[in-house]
Amino acid sequence: MIDEPDPTDLLQEVLDQAGDGFVELRSHRKRTRGLAVEKGRVDNARTSEHTGVGVRVLVDGAWGFASTDRLEADAVRESLEQARRVARASRPATRQPDLPPVELARGRFDAPGVEETLERPVDEALELVLGLERAASEASTSVQSAHCSYNEVFEEKGVVTSDGARAWTRLVRPELSVGAVAARDGELQRGYEAVGSTGGWECLFRRRTGEALAERAAKTAVDLLAAAHPEGGRKKVLLSPSLVGLLTHEAIGHTVEADFVSAGSCAAGMLGERVASELVTLCDSGRSELVDGAGGTIDVDDEGVEAGRCVIIDQGRLVSYLHDRASAARYETAPTGNARAWEYGDAPLIRMRNTYIEPGQHTLEELIARTDDGLLLDGCANGQADANGEFMFGTREAYPIRNGQLGPLMRGANISGVAFDVLKTVDGVGDAFRWDLGAGHCGKGQPAKVDAGGPWLSCEVLVGGRQA
Prior knowledge:
The chain is α+β, with helices and mostly antiparallel strands. The chain has 2 domains: 8-224, PmbA/TldD fold (2-Layer Sandwich), CATH 3.30.2290; 233-464, no CATH class. The protein is 21% helix and 38% strand. The chain is built from 10 helices and 25 strands. The protein has helices spanning 8-16, 73-89, 114-119, 122-137, 210-224, 241-253, 258-262, 325-331, 364-369, 419-424, and strands spanning 22-38, 41-59, 62-68, 106-110, 143-161, 166-184, 187-196, 233-239, 282-285, 309-314, 317-318, 339-340, 349-350, 354-357, 373-385, 390-402, 405-406, 410-411, 414-418, 428-429, 434-435, 442-443, 447-448, 451-454, 457-464. Helix 1 packs across helix 2 and helix 4 packs parallel to helix 5 (210-224). The protein starts with 7 loop residues before the first helix and ends with a strand.
């Protein structure tokens, strides 16, 4: 193990002399490394590192925040006094209640893969992306261009609070993507595969090799050139784990973040109500439940709360929101470990981690066999959702189902609806589970690494296509 100084020693030194009142000190070192290849050459190569300390205080019901990029006791003390001045000068419309007591994390938390990834030469990553870009480019004469990128983020955080937290966490998140563009008779189609995880290099290839990712990206782009469009209308669909994850994260997860609930999201006032089929249990967890390597995994959140599993929908009923310590105090409940900050200069926000629907009892083959007229949909293309749970997502691939038989590839279609209404139509939940949204970032004022997934899901949505 690489021997590094414990950043909480300095934070604790400052905290011991901080005086009365609630104080939270968070050191954060983030190092990123990335490579991108297109048309056989390196298009981008970058490294960056950001290190500093974020300081948050609670004074007479008002929050104050400040930060410094100097890991020195005097600089942290100066930021502490600045945060207190900010708190005293503010006049919040609603006074923050005292934070409820909670068992806070203490100790060192190292995620798997940190040492292995830190010691891996960058030449191996370069060889990988050059080879995969070349494989995608040469997969077919119809492929006009291809690209491949590899990124990794190493993070080390120390959190100490005046009410007992003292945690040091380290993790690494690698990410790989391959894309291809195919052309025929002036028409272009794209194929894209991406995977991101928390853990070592090997986590990226648990489901598929890099070569398989490149092959699938190129094949999808080429096959879509000859694919027809599905018919539009309200339809029975089988959503893949990636689309289940997108629905779960974008259209459900954000609506149950307690700050959005307080602002009037569609989930406000609905605790205890039935919002989905009884087949649906939906959770958010700092752990990588069911399958290792989920991209949003954290052991401890940025307030020092252990990031365990929160059941949001239990067999169809909404039973919890996602909370940081401040919202938990206002809602008179326990925090759920969802306070996260992107860098040291950001104050923690309520953010998801790994959000998912639990698997059920049916194989994919059984779900297909019991569908008389519908579509199997796979691949996330684009989309949006709002605070009312209304969504519109693009899909990359569609396969018609007639009398329990799967038909040929069709071009992906848009799907739309109100998320809670869609979940009420669920009549079948697959037994196989996977995480599938670990690549990229979630945005909410500041980025966050998250993941989402689930099993195959049988439900009804509005499909945007073409009339027969």
